[in-house]
Amino acid sequence: MSEDRQERFGGTGAVRAGHGFEVAALDAWMQAHVAGYAGPLSVEQFKGGQSNPTYRLVTPTRAYVLRRKPPGTLLPGAHAVEREYRVLAALGQAGFPVAPVHGLCEDAGVIGTPFYVMDMVEGRIFWDSTLPALTPQERPAYFDAMNAAIAQLHGIDPQAIGLGDYGKPGSYFARQIARWSRQYREDEAAGRNDDMDWLADWLPGQIPAGDETTIVHGDFRADNMIWHPTEPRILAVLDWELSTLGHPLADFTYHLMMYHLPPHIIGGFKGADLVALNIPSQADYVAAYCARTGRDGIDNLPFYLAFNMFRFAAIIHGIKGRMTRGTASSPEAQSLVDTLPELAAIGRRTAQGQGR
Q: Exposed, middle or buried by CB within 10 Å (0-12, 13-18, 19+), for 52?
């Protein structure tokens, strides 16, 4: 499975049909806005990524990465590359591992949609969350590095780094459930699903008491990280499109879904022999995060997991709608959309206490 995901999602290829743009226009923008830039410029497109098309920009002396909004009709507030740029700039200044950014272009006239440019960070990407390229002796340090990174993120004061208005403080679950339920129900092109309908009705009445607000990534998982070539050290956390101010336990338990989903759904490892692989148990992984963040534990875990499964299923539902409208940004969109019924069913079973 890992080799298959590496082949399908790793690396770059030719720019896909419908995602091209005038390279000369980008070259002129780069000359005007990116310090030290020197062409000529060639463009390749990364295979991975379902939402914002991502490109490798190659020059004779260095490489960059460009992230842009996809072409076509978009849902309101979706594909906010401007927000990605802002959070990357702020977190980079705060010492969190992200790719250094070089510039944001909000003028759709340059390449057809807004975009930003950042460094091309060279390193390893593990497309399979069991990290099969590593030995059992190596794996614990890598899982601990992921655990430490998400705890570090949740410990950053948004106000202190200029992100105090990056989202609305408080009531995160209520707002997120309402948002994704609305987007799910309004995207008629993608159809409906009984388990999604059930979750949309069940979740609002199950929100745990208490509230917290931190910076949240929104899609924190192994394949959204670039690792040092030989060390258990994260060089850059990628894909901040869903980041905002939110509840840290929502963010952490999204990451925790790797323990509950099968390999064909965002690279989960449910059913794997964790002892043989030397991957920490869920209980130990939760305990390490709690120790780093000053918690006694995490109550109401089925709610948090069901919430995240619903939220991710709603994102896939949006991809299904874009695919129907002809604007999905990856040829792998269909394989992801095919997992929607299974993911929604797992979410419902988890909510009903019949999950892992």
A: buried
Classified as helix, coil or strand, 343 is helix
The pair of three-digit structure tokens given for residue 282, joined into one six-digit string = 């869920």
58: which strand partners? Answer: 42, 63
Contact (Cβ atoms closer than 8 angstroms) between residue 288 and residue 144: yes
Between 254 and 355, the higher pLDDT residue: 254
Closest CA to 133 of 261, 232, 12, 259: 232
Instruction: Render 48-111 in DSSP notation, one character per residue.
Output: --SSS-EEEEE-SS-EEEEEEPPSS---TT-S-HHHHHHHHHHHHHTT-S-PPEEEEE--TTTT
What's the burial of 277, exposed, middle or buried (CB within 10 Å: 0-12/13-18/19+)?
middle
Q: What's the pLDDT at 1?
A: 39
In the predicted structure, residue 335 carries a pLDDT above the cut 90: no
Give the pair of three-digit tokens for residue 19: 């995602």
Distance CA 55, CA 120 (A): 10
* Gap between the Cα atoms of 234 and 292, Å rounded: 17
pLDDT at 331: 60
